[in-house]
């Protein structure tokens, strides 16, 4: 049996967790062959120290299955309810132990210990998860052990752990392409180099295709850099940069039962909808292995996310018109009768629509300590940490009323200042 260790982590707030084990635990530990890895996980070195329950999806599973979406990744994990969203599952809907899976708002979703929520306190929704090719494992924590990772840990915590940089002394790389129906194309490439002093890697992933509906094309690109440097025998600096560009010709306007019966592969207004998201992440980490029993991990992070959805129809729309078309509430075409114009009318596609631009900035710094020691003949493991976290959110909503305003949300905001709905949140 092999236990892959040297996991570092983050704590959302000051926490203290202690567990005691009998003397026989030390004997069992001596039989394990420990393999050193440099990853950023949330589970401690000793998995038997985790209170509650946990699951690990390892690299072998990801490599064998090569899952595209979160449903394929995590459908075998007990206690998880993963709901599909769109043909490729780019949006993340994970419910744990009966919690509402809507945008994973009741679970803490992380990558290398840093939140994937747009804003964990102000707007805890997820529109992104890293591609499978970038991952070495996925950790799922349920029960008491999730308290370390808040704030959204009512259901549990999920951490996507990215692959470590190469340290073999040789250039390493891979190139993968895949093709499927609906004109699906996947391109993934990585290259890196490392030795005993440190290493780095670059990665690129593109998912592109026509989507499940007609005229619902998507193009999602993910750029990654990861590097680390051993500044002493016991101290390591790490840096990770991520940029994601997400473009989709669809939002959250799904099919009604009437529309599905008419044509399950066509949506009456999706050709007029657009989704865009740009996401940038900077993560800097310092690991100090004070001795064999005490490790300090500190990291600073910054995220900058912008998203806008242009929607031609409202969710849960009412009855269809006499032609069987869904009716848009957002049309404002005087020549066609204003609101109530068919969403599939050739002229209706040239005006109206709802923009929902939102800007999110988060930043923070944290330190976590992992301490193992013996006391009164028992072995103890203590985890403690502190985090400072800050968020700035600017949410807006505006109804576009012309062709130009549909194509440029900034113009719609400028032309209709009295109609803008907005909120600014700082935590």
Automatic annotation (TrEMBL):
Please classify the protein's predominant subcellular localization into one broad category.
membrane
Every copy of the TonB-dependent receptor plug domain together lies at 48-157
Q: What organism, scientifically named, is this protein from?
A: Methylophaga aminisulfidivorans
Q: Record's family?
A: Belongs to the TonB-dependent receptor family.
Q: Which SUPFAM superfamilies match?
A: Porins (SSF56935)
The keyword Membrane belongs to this UniProt entry's keyword annotation: yes
Biological processes per GO annotation: siderophore-iron import into cell
Query: Its topology with respect to the membrane?
Result: Multi-pass membrane protein
Q: Where in the cell is it found?
A: Cell outer membrane
According to UniProt, the name of this protein is TonB-dependent receptor
Instruction: Tell me which UniProt keywords the record has, alphabetically.
Output: Cell outer membrane, Membrane, Receptor, Signal, Transmembrane, Transmembrane beta strand, Transport
Q: Which GO terms describe its cellular component?
A: cell outer membrane
Signal peptide range in chain numbering: 1-25
């Amino acid at each position: 049996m092999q236990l892959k260790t040297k996991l570092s982590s983050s704590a959302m707030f000051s926490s203290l967790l202690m567990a005691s084990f009998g003397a026989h635990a030390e004997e069992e530990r001596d039989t394990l062959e420990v393999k050193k890895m440099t990853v950023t996980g949330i589970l401690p070195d000793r998995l038997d120290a985790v209170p509650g329950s946990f699951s690990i999806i390892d690299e072998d599973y990801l490599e064998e299955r090569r899952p595209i979406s979160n449903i394929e990744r995590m459908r075998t994990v007990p206690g998880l309810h993963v709901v599909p969203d769109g043909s490729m599952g780019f949006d993340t809907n994970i419910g744990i132990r009966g919690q509402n899976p809507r945008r994973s708002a009741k679970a803490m979703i992380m990558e290398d210990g840093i939140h994937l929520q747009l804003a964990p306190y102000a707007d805890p929704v997820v529109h992104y998860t890293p591609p499978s090719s970038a991952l070495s494992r996925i950790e799922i924590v349920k029960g008491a052990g999730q308290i370390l990772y808040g704030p959204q840990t009512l259901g549990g915590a999920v951490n996507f752990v990215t692959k470590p940089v190469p340290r073999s002394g040789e250039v390493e790389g891979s190139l993968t392409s895949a093709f499927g129906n609906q004109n699906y194309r996947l391109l993934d490439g990585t290259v890196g180099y490392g030795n005993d002093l440190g290493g780095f890697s670059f990665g690129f992933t593109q998912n592109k295709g026509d989507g499940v509906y007609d005229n619902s094309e998507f193009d999602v690109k993910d750029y990654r850099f990861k590097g680390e440097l051993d500044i002493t025998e016991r101290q390591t600096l790490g840096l990770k940069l991520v940029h994601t560009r997400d473009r989709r010709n669809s939002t959250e306007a799904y099919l009604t039962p009437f529309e599905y019966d008419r044509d399950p592969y066509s949506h009456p207004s999706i050709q007029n909808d657009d989704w865009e998201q740009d996401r940038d992440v900077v993560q800097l980490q310092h690991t100090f292995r004070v001795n064999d029993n005490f490790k300090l991990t500190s990291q600073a992070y910054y995220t900058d996310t912008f998203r806008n959805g242009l929607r031609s129809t409202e969710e849960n729309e009412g009855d269809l018109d006499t032609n069987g078309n869904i009716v848009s509430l957002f049309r404002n075409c005087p020549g066609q009768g204003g609101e109530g114009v068919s969403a599939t009318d050739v002229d209706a596609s040239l005006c109206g629509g709802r923009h929902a631009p939102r800007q999110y900035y988060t930043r923070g710094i944290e330190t976590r300590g992992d301490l193992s020691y013996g006391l009164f003949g028992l072995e103890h493991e203590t985890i403690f940490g502190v985090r400072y976290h800050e968020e700035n959110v600017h949410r807006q909503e505006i109804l576009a009323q012309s062709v130009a305003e549909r194509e440029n949300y900034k113009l719609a905001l400028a032309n209709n200042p009295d109609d803008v709905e907005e909120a600014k949140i700082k935590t």
